[in-house]
Write a structure and sequence with these properties.
Chain B: Pfam families: PhoU. The complex is a heterodimer. Chain A has a domain of 171 residues: P-loop containing nucleotide triphosphate hydrolases (Rossmann fold), CATH 3.40.50.300. Chain A has ten helices and ten strands. Chain A has a six-stranded mixed beta sheet with strand order 6-7-8-3-9-10, with helices on both faces. In chain A, strands 2-1-4-5 form a four-stranded antiparallel beta sheet, with helices on one face. In chain A, helix 3 packs across helix 4 and helix 4 crosses helix 6. The radius of gyration of chain A is 18 Å and the shape is globular. Chain A starts with 14 loop residues before the first strand and ends in a 5-residue tail after the last helix. Chain B has one domain: Phosphate transport system protein phou homolog 2, domain 2 (Methane Monooxygenase Hydroxylase, Chain G, domain 1, Up-down Bundle). In chain B, helix 1 packs antiparallel against helix 2, helix 1 runs antiparallel to helix 4 and helix 4 packs parallel to helix 6. The C terminus of chain B is likely disordered. The chains are: A alpha/beta, B mainly alpha. The interface between A and B is medium-sized, with 18 and 17 residues.
Chain lengths: 264, 236
């Protein structure tokens, strides 16, 4: 592939997650067909494609969220740092502490702001005592760019925050368990443009520490926040490459048709 | 990409910009041919019309740029749509420059019509003008047809214009050496020839943009260049 040098240089080319021949069936529905992809470390990777193309399905494979769907069958191999995440010895709960997730609609627990963030570290035993937990809550809220807005009302319910604040609270909650990978399934689709810009700014900051994978329906958002873009269509990974290249001169005509608004 | 957008207004925007480019191309071609004719027939009125007509060409360029800015702001074009917009803006700039050359030709033809004619030269210039307008037309046709091969052909054919310029350069040099009184008209004619040769380069520039538009990459290898006037130390 030719190097268009349109985006800032990807910091590292190390693959954090390697997927080979991944297939997903929901009952008789073949939702994902033979996906090979390397998700790079400390890089934002965007998954784009029309509804039902398999992008969210694939995202959910990366932290074994599909385990919770009875009809789902995942085959192929997904490794994180060389470790097969579908190995029977891998505890999905531990995996999800390392591979955090943020959903489309902000879903704070019906608890205080403090407890929303402290919940993960508590159940995973990441803090030895109150002082350490306080520190995790503070740094997580700071990483999510929410600390200044909530530091005086940590005991207030998380559900009382605005939509954008709630989403950043969910990001703080995901960040609190010190994950290595952060999965985001349309994290901005319920947010206004200002909150969206704040979350995008946050994503850009988070990539210094994590590998971020974001599913988005907004191609402009994919172009703005990611360094790598993967285009899914009808269960296939059609094209995967540098974001600048995908948006100026995609190789596959299906990618071209989708990003120029010609097919749905 | 021939498939239409889901949002049909986007297609209409691109089509109207395309129409502006073609209108601009038509005006520029006519200006060059008319200016060359005015030069040969010593038609000052026609030359004056070409000079005045450049305003319309400049206005079209502004209009194209404004439309392109609007499409970028409103439609956020990507991939081939983005390349179309970038290409259109560059083509408009190329055409605007060609319009300036035609205007300059017209201006000089008015000066030359007050002097004794140099035998043969204005006919050569008119043939050269016909050749470059053909290149321009083909480059624009290649753009409309999204035809990279046709564009490549334009790139190659620019050397014919270069050759015509080289021949004319020597012819004018001979006139000047024969009689110093020929220097003033020969200098004017030389500038005219050089400007027409530059129009050929702009046609090549348009052709290269077409290749970028179609393939996503500018042509890599250098195109053939035949300019003996700068090679032998007798450079213009």
């Amino acid at each position: 592939m030719n190097d268009m040098r349109l985006t800032e240089k990807v910091v590292t080319e190390t693959a954090k997650i390697t997927a080979r021949g991944v297939q997903v069936h929901y009952g008789t529905n073949h939702a994902l067909k033979d996906v090979d992809v390397d998700i790079l470390d400390k890089t934002v990777t965007a998954f784009i494609g029309p509804s039902g193309c398999g992008k969210s399905t694939f995202l959910r494979c990366l932290n074994r969220m599909n385990d919770t769907v009875a009809s789902a069958r995942v085959t192929g191999r997904i490794e994180m740092d060389g470790q097969d995440i579908y190995d029977p010895r891998v505890d999905p709960v531990q995996l999800r502490a390392k591979v955090g997730m943020v959903f489309q609609k902000p879903n704070p627990f019906p608890k205080s702001i403090y407890d929303n963030v402290a919940y993960g570290p508590k159940i995973h035993g990441l803090a030895r005592g109150k002082a350490e937990l306080d520190e995790i809550v503070e740094t997580s809220l700071k990483k999510a760019a929410l600390w200044n807005e909530v530091k005086d009302r940590l005991a207030a319910p998380g559900t009382g925050l605005s939509g954008g604040q709630q989403q950043r609270l969910c990001i703080a909650r995901a960040v609190a368990t010190s994950p290595e990978v952060l999965l985001m399934d349309e994290p901005c689709s319920a947010l206004d443009p200002i909150a969206t810009a704040q979350v995008e700014e946050l994503i850009d900051e988070l990539r210094a520490q994590f590998s971020v994978v974001i599913v988005t329906h907004s191609m402009q958002q994919a172009a703005r926040v990611s360094q790598r873009t993967a285009f899914f269509h009808l269960g296939h990974l059609v094209e995967y490459g540098e974001t600048g290249h995908i948006f100026t001169n995609p190789t596959d005509p299906r990618t071209e048709a989708y990003i120029t608004g010609r097919i749905g | 990409m021939t498939q239409s957008h889901i949002l049909s207004a986007f297609d209409r925007d691109l089509e109207s910009i395309q129409a502006l480019v073609m209108r601009m191309g038509g005006l520029v071609e006519a200006a060059i041919l008319d200016a060359a004719e005015a030069l040969e027939t010593r038609d000052e009125e026609m030359a004056q019309r070409v000079r005045a007509g450049d305003k319309a060409i400049d206005a079209l360029e502004e209009q194209i740029n404004a439309e392109c800015a609007r499409v970028i702001a409103i439609r956020a074009p990507a991939a081939s749509d983005l390349r179309t917009i970038l290409t259109v803006m560059k083509i408009a700039a190329n055409l605007e420059r060609c319009g300036d050359y035609a205007k300059n030709l017209a201006k000089r033809s008015m000066v030359l019509s007050q002097m004794a004619a140099l035998p043969g030269s204005t006919g050569s210039i008119r043939r050269m003008a016909k050749q470059v307008t053909l290149l321009l037309k083909d480059a624009l046709d290649a753009y409309i047809a999204r035809d990279a091969r046709m564009a490549e052909d334009v790139r190659q054919r620019d050397q014919d214009v270069d050759q015509m310029y080289n021949a004319l350069f020597r012819e004018l040099l001979t006139h000047m050496m024969e009689d110093p009184r020929n220097i003033t008209p020969a200098m004017h004619l030389h500038f005219i020839a050089k400007n027409i040769e530059r129009v050929g380069d702009h046609a090549t520039g348009i052709a290269e943009q077409v290749i970028y538009l179609v393939t996503g990459q500018l042509p890599g290898e250098a195109r053939p260049k035949i300019d003996s006037t700068t090679a032998g130390g007798q450079g213009a």
